[in-house]
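During the reporting period the student researcher (J.K.) took over the structure-prediction task from the postdoctoral fellow and processed the backlog of single-chain submissions. One of the processed entries is reproduced below for the supervisory committee.
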Amino acid sequence: MPKLTEVRKSVYQLTEPLVPLLVKTHITPTALTWLGFAISLGAAALIATGHLLIAGFVVLVSGFFDMLDGALARHTDQVTHSGAVLDSTLDRVSEAVLLLAVLIFYLSSANPPAMGILFVSLALIGSPLVSYIRAKAEAIGLECKMGLFTRPERVITLAVGLLASRIDYALITVLAIIAVFSFVTAGQRLRYVLKQTRK
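J.K. obtained the following structure tokens:
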């Protein structure tokens, strides 16, 4: 997926001008990781209480911080195994909490949408599966960053759905996209790992 790779690189390059400024503040990559996680928890609270439009902006902010911590770590030569594990763990938790907040929002409504509940439930299964396969692949020495719909795409797509939530079925459509393409990406990664381990 060369075009998608270029898009991802362009998004990550947005953080580069801010890194020198962050260096001057002496803030650590770990502090940024925790800050991004705290912001995502705030977004989840907004979702659960029905403030979807504001939550969409907050999700984008939390995703931006998620990119900044890695960029700062690389720039200051502070890349560590413990930092990577913490970042990956908090990423999984924050994504699950955001989706769980959507589920809570649906279940607390007067007329819970069955399709919305179905798709967010599937997304809660598919999203961590993508990351799990990568982690297992890396545990046996394989790099497995490939795939159509990785975490940045899922976060941005969810944010777009929240921002467009006043449009009928917009959020449900976005959840369907996240659910379906998470399983597609998990399948791509599993196929890649199985192919590499059979050599």
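The committee noted the following: Residues 2-197 form a domain with the Four Helix Bundle (Hemerythrin (Met), subunit A) fold (CATH 1.20.120.1760).
J.K. will present the remaining backlog at the next meeting.
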